[in-house]
Amino acid sequence: MKTLQAGRIVQALDSFRIELPSWGFSNTGTRFGKYLQPAAATTIDEKFSDAQQVHQLTGVCPTLALHVLWDLPGGLHDVDRIVSLAAKHGVQPGSINPNLFEDQMYKFGSFGNPDRTVREHALQHTRDSVAIARRLNSRDIVLWFADGSNYPGTANIRHRKQWFEENLRALHTDVDARQRLLVEYKPFEPAFYHTDIADWGMALAFARSAGPHARVLVDTGHHYQSQNIEQLVAWLLAEGMLGGFHFNDRRYADDDLTLGSIDPYQVFRIFHEILLFEWESGTRADIAYMIDQSHNLKGKIEAMIQTVMQAQELFAKASLVEYETLASAQGRCQLVEAESVLRDAFSTDVRPVIQEWRTARGLPSDPLEAFRQSGYLEQITADRRGRSSATSSYA
Ligand code: PSV
Ligand code: MN
Question: Domains along the chain?
Answer without folding.
Answer: 15-322+365-389 (3.20.20.150)
